[in-house]
Amino acid sequence: MTAVPGRRSSTFTRLLRYGFTDPSAAERRLDAPELASVRTDPVLLDALGATADPDLALAGLVRIVEAQDPAERRTLLDTLITAKPLRDRLLGVLGASEALADHLARHPHDWHALVTYEAADLHPGLAEFERGLAGADDPVTLRIAYRRCLLAIAARDVCGTTDMAETAAELADLATATLRAALAIARTAAPADAELCRLAVIAMGKCGGHELNYVSDVDVIFVGEPAEGADERKAVQAATRLASHLMRICSETTVEGTIWPVDANLRPEGRNGPLVRTLSSHLAYYQRWAKTWEFQALLKARPVAGDPELGLAYIEAVSPLVWQAAERDNFVSDVQKMRRRVVDNIPAAQVERELKLGPGGLRDVEFAVQLLQLVHGRSDATLHSGTTLDALGALAAGGYVGRADAAQLDESYRFLRAMEHRIQLYRLRRTHLVPEDEADLRRLGRSLGLRTEPVTTLNREWKKHAAVVRRLHEKLFYRPLLDAVAQLAPGETRLSPRAAGQRLEALGYADPAAALRHLEALSSGVTRKAAIQRTLLPVLLGWFADSADPDAGLLGFRKVSDALGKTPWYLRLLRDEGAAAENLARVLSAGRLAPDLLLRAPEAVALLGDPEGLKPRGREHLEQEVLAAVGRAETAEGAVAAARGVRRRELFRTAAADLIGSYGTEDSPAEPDPGALVDRVGNAVTDLNAATLAGALRAAVRAEWGETLPTRFAVIGMGRFGGHELGYGSDADVLFVHEPREFVDEQEASKTATRVITEMRRLLQLPTADPPLLIDADLRPEGKSGPMARTLGSYAAYYRRWSLVWESQALLRAEPMAGDAELGRRFIELIDPLRYPAEGLGEDAVREIRRLKARMESERMPRGADPTLHTKLGRGGLSDVEWTVQLFQMQHGWAEPGLRTTRTRDALSAAHAAGLIATEDAEILDEAWVLATRVRNGVMLVRGRAGDTFPSDGRELAAVGRYLGYEPGHVGDMLDDYRRVTRRARAVVERLFYGA
C-alpha cells in the first residue's frame, strides 16, 4: 500500500470513509505481514467500518492475529472472512472493548467462543454458563473462564442479538454461576468447614434483580445453619470462613485481574454485623431493628448459590416482612427521606455526567418502581418482581401507573442502561459517568447505533431520555391518583379507592379520603381549567408530600384555586412560570401563617411567579404606598384598612421568601446562611410595621386635625422593633414623644397627643381580615402608670432625675420609626448620654444589671417550661445573648462608635472588631441568637401564632424542623443541636456577663 510521497493514497481516503479517525495508523496496521492474506478483502473493511470504533477494532485484531501460531492464524483469518457471525461478533467486541481485546491477546484461542451460532448459544441460561465455568478449579482459571463467557455475552450485545434487558439477565446468570464456582473452590479448599455447615448465598441488588451491569459490585447476604448434629457456633464460624474465601476468590486481583467485588454490606447491621447469620438471627433483626430501606433492598433478594433449601427458606421467611413494610409506623418519614435525591456526595463537576445518581438518572426509575411495589405489593402479588422493567410492566398492567408513562419510562430506562453498559464495557471498569472526551463519546454513540454525527446525537438523546425520567419519575406516583377520581376511557385501568388511599398514606397524607375529594373537586370535568389542573397536580402533589403537612398543602391549594379559579391569569401563571407552582406548594404546605395571609387576598399568589416578587421592599417605598393609600381613603377606618392590607401583603411576601429560602427549590438551593434569613425577616417586618404606623398616624391626624397636628409628634421604636429584629408575631414596642407648636398650650398638646395615640391603637386593632398590629408602650417612663406621651422636655426631666439603669438599657434599642423626623432625631440626641454613659458603667450599675437578669431568669420563666428549649428566657437564648451584648454597649459605647447601634448582631460584630469579645465567643453567641430567632420565626410560620418554645404536636415540630433544614425523622437531632448550641452560648454568657 505504498503511496507516492506528498499524495494521499486511495486507501487513506477509503479508510476515512469507513469511519477510521487515524487512517495513517490504520494503513500501517493493515500493512502488517500477518494480515497479508486479507488486507485487500472488502469484506474486512466493511466489517471494521460497522464497528463502534474501527481504529480500536483493527488494533485489537492485529494483536490477536500476531498472538496466534501460523496454523491457528490461518484458521482465524479464513473463518473471519468466510463466516459473518464470527466477523460481526469478534470485530464488534474489539471495536467496543479494549479490555476484552486485552483478554483475547493474552488468551488467543478464546476467539473460538464466538464461532458457534446455535439456538442455545444465542440465548444461554444459567446451565450453559455453569458448563462454561466447569473446568475452573482456582481463582486464575475461574477468571479466564469468566472472561470467556463475558466475551460471548458482549458479542451478542454489540451485535444486537440480545437487547439490554436480556444482556443484563445473562450477566446476572453468569454472576450466579461464578458465585457457585467460587463456593465450590472454597468448599474444596476447606472440606471440614463444608461438612460442618449449610451455607446459602442470597443475591441482592442488580444481581438479585436479574439485571446486572458489566462491571458492578455483586451484593449478597449469607445465611448459615449447622449441618445435622453440628454445633451452631462452630457451624457459623465455618460458614463465615467459607463466605470470606468466596468473596476473596471473586474480589482479589491476580495475574488475570479481578472478577468483581462481592459486597455483603446489605446484611443486617451492615459492615458492623456478622458476615453470616442463621435464619432465625436474620428474622429477629428484620422484625425488630430493620429500617425501611432494608426491606426495599430485600425486594431483589434471590437465592443463587449454596444450599437451595436454606436459600428458599430465607426468601419465604423475609418476603412477608417486605410486603408489610408500608404498614410500619415510620414508613412515611422513611419514604420522604429516601425520596430526596442523594446527590450531595457527587462532586459538583460530575453531577451533570452521572447516569445513575444524577437528575433524571437510573436511580430515579428504580426508586420510584420499588416504592410503588412496597405500597401496592402488599395487596397485589403480581408486583412481586425484583426486575425493574418487569415490575414497571406489572404496575402498568395493574393500573398503578399510567400505561403511556410506563412505556416512556421503559424506553428511557433501556436507553440509559444501554449507555451504562457500553461505557463500562470499554475498559471493564465500574463507572456511571458519561465520558467527556470526544473520541470516547464518538465510540459510545456509534456503539448504540448512532452513526450520523454520533456525538451530537448521543448528547441529544441522552438529555432527552434523562428529561423524560426526571419528568415522569415523580408523575409516576401522582398521575394515577387523579385517574382514580377521573372519568377514564373504556379499557383503561385505574387505582381502586383503597389503592389510591394506600399510596396517599405512603406519601404522608394523614387523611387520604379528604385528599381524594380535593383531587376530584380540582380535576374533574372537561373544562380547560380542569385540564390544566390535571397537568399541575401530579407535580404539586409531589411537592406537598415533600413537606411536613401534605394535607394542609393540598387543602390550601384547593382553597386558593376556588378563590381564583375564574381569574384567567392564575392557572396560566402556575403552568407557565416554572417557579410559581413550586413556590406556591412550598408556601401552602409549610405551616399556617403564610396560607392564612394568602387566603385573605389570594391575588398575592402573583408574587410567587415574579423573579423580583419575593425581594423585600424598602421602608421608603412602603411608606409612599401606604401614605398614598391613606390619602385616597374617605375615612380613617378605610385609610388604615388600606394600610393594613399593604402590611398583610408584605407579611406574605416576607413569609414566602423566608420559607422558599429555607426549603430551597429544584432550581435554587436553600439559603446557606441562616443569619441572612433572620436579618431579612427582621428588616422587612420592621420596615412594613414602621410604614403601617406612619399610615395610621396620618389617618388619625387627618380625620380630626387635617394636615397639621397642634403638636409635633414622633413614634420611637423600642425593643425588637427599634433593633430591626421583629418576628412575624411581634408587637410594636414604642415610645411617643411630642412637642407643642408655637403658641399651643402644653396641656392641650398633651391631650391631643394622647387622643392621637388612642385613635391609632383603635384603628390598628379593628376586627378585619388583616392581622392586627398591637402597639405596646409599656417601656415608657413610669411604665403603665405614666402618661402615654411626653414632651421632649418631660423626657429630659424624668431621665435626669428618676431614670433607672434598666431604662437606660432599654433605650439602647430606641430608633425613630414614624412622625416628625426632626423631633425623633432630637430625642436620640437626648438619650445618647444615658445609653452610652461617658466612661462606661460603674460597678454598682453592672451589679444591678446582673441582679435584674438573674431575677428575670428565676421569675419570668413560664411554669413547666424546659429552660434548655425556651428561646427567649432559656439557657443561652435571646435574653442571654442580648443582655451580654447590651452590657458591652453600655460599658464601651462611649468610646467605640461601632457599638452605637440598635441591632444585636451589628453590636456583637462591633464588640468583636474592637477586641472586646474573642472570635470564638462572638461566633458562639451569634449562632445561638440566630438559631433562637429562627426557631421563633419557624413556630409562628407553622402554628400561625407566636411561641417561645418548640411545639409539642409532632407534625408541627417536624414542620419547624423542616424549616430549620432538618430532614424528616430528625426532630431529635434538631432538639439536641439546639441544646448544644445554647449550652455553649450560656457558658460564654457566664464568663462575659456574670464574670464567672
Overview of this structure, please?
There is one protein chain. By secondary structure, the protein is mainly α. It contains 44 helices and 10 strands. The strands form 2 sheets. Strands 1, 2, 3, 4 and 5 form a 5-stranded mixed sheet that branches. It is elongated, with a radius of gyration of 38 Å.
Structural class: mainly alpha
Proportion of residues in extended strands: 5-15%
Number of strands: 10
Whole-Å distance between the termini?
A: 94 Å
Fraction of helical residues: 55-70%
Gyration radius, in Å: 38 Å
Shape field: elongated
Mean pLDDT across residues: 91
Contiguous runs where pLDDT drops below 50 for at least 5 residues: 1-7
The helix count comes to 44
Largest sheet: 5 strands, mixed
Architecture blueprint of SSEs:
Elements (H helix, E strand, L loop, with lengths): L9 H8 L5 H8 L11 H8 L4 H14 L2 H13 L1 H13 L1 H9 L12 H4 L3 H7 L6 H20 L5 H26 L1 H6 E7 L1 H4 L9 E9 L5 H20 L10 E2 L12 E2 L1 H10 L3 H7 L3 E5 L1 H16 L7 H9 L22 H15 L11 H10 L5 H25 L10 H10 L6 H30 L13 H10 L5 H12 L4 H18 L4 H15 L3 H9 L1 H12 L3 H8 L18 H14 L3 H28 L10 H32 L5 E7 L1 H4 L9 E9 L5 H19 L10 E2 L12 E3 H10 L3 H6 L4 E5 L1 H15 L7 H17 L18 H15 L11 H10 L5 H25 L10 H10 L7 H22 L4
Parallel strand pairs: 2-3, 2-4, 7-8, 7-9
Antiparallel strand pairs: 1-2, 1-5, 6-7, 6-10
